[in-house]
Write a structure and sequence with these properties.
The protein is mainly alpha-helical. 46% of the residues lie in helices and 0% in strands. It contains 3 helices and no strands. The protein has helices spanning 6-10, 17-32, 47-56.
């Protein structure tokens, strides 16, 4: 899997590094719990790399939180 430039990833969180880290972390956790991958990968690809690739390809995105 190819290197993903950070600039390409930050576009998906309006330049917010914190949101990017949280989004990638949550997606990697979902993958670790058995969620289906949304991109083609090798079997040795790390979950965080898969999550970042999914973000880059707009397979997942941030969701607005509802305030109670």
């Amino acid at each position: 899997m190819a290197y993903v430039p950070i600039e390409n990833l930050l576009k998906h969180t309006n330049g917010n590094m914190y949101e990017l880290v949280i989004l990638a972390s949550r997606r990697a956790q979902e993958l670790g719990l058995g969620s289906e991958k949304l991109v083609e990968t090798n079997t040795n690809t790390k979950l965080t790399t898969i999550a970042l690739k999914e973000i880059e390809l707009s397979k997942i995105s941030r969701k607005a939180k509802k305030k109670s």
